[in-house]
Design goal:
Its EC number is 3.4.-.-. This protein is mainly beta and 220 residues long. The chain has helices at residues 13-20, 86-89, 171-176, 179-182, and strands spanning 4-7, 32-35, 40-47, 50-58, 76-78, 96-101, 103-110, 113-121, 127-136, 141-150, 161-163, 165-166, 193-197. The protein contains four helices and 13 strands. The strands form two sheets. Strands 3, 4, 5, 6, 9, 10, 11 and 12 form an eight-stranded mixed beta sheet that branches. It has a five-stranded antiparallel beta sheet with strand order 2-1-7-8-13, with no helix packed on it. The longest helix is centred in the N-terminal third of the chain and has 8 residues, at 13-20. It is globular and about 50 Å long.
Amino acid sequence: MCGRKYASEELTWAEYREMLNIIQPTSNLQPNYNIAPTHVMPVCIWESGRAALKPMQWGLIPTWAKDAKRSYAMTNARSETLEEKPSFKNLLKSCRCAVLVSGFYEWRRDGKHKQAHKVERGDGKPMILAGLWADNPVLESTTYTVITTDATPAFAPIHNRLPAILEPEQVHSWLTDQWSEAGAMLKPYAGAIDAIPVSNDVGNVRNNYPELLRPMVAMD
């Protein structure tokens, strides 16, 4: 499950160009400390023979949908069933995308209590998430979904699902290879990730400020 993401002020266009091998843009982006479904952000796709950024709304609306209500159920797509779901299987050949973020949020449940965590790469580098995207001409929408895998044993105490995380050197192949090769990349992330408790204020989408990323101080 991936229900919230964040892109801090440290995630610059220079990193977008370097990690995704794109030639545009030339100006910096605005940080978003609480990226929620329906928010629009730049997403990397393969277009006209090169990697390019395209603004998209998070929450995939299928190409055949006549209304936008289904988008709320399609913020994530399970890697194991992509080839079975009508909303996704027709996108696997040429509508794969990469989403660059600083990290994402997840909630660990302990009985009735849920505690928010920010989840980052252990090496501090931005995360590249594998996704699918769709244009819907009737609704004039361009939307995307984040693909998830089983959690690693280390992450399982937080949640049983984990976004499919790509390394920079995998992005070109993910965007352009045949599905038989690209689909094989959708495995639980083998690298180190850190899950750090933060304020549950992130649960309110209206809250969007740098302090959401501040680690909680353990109380004696």
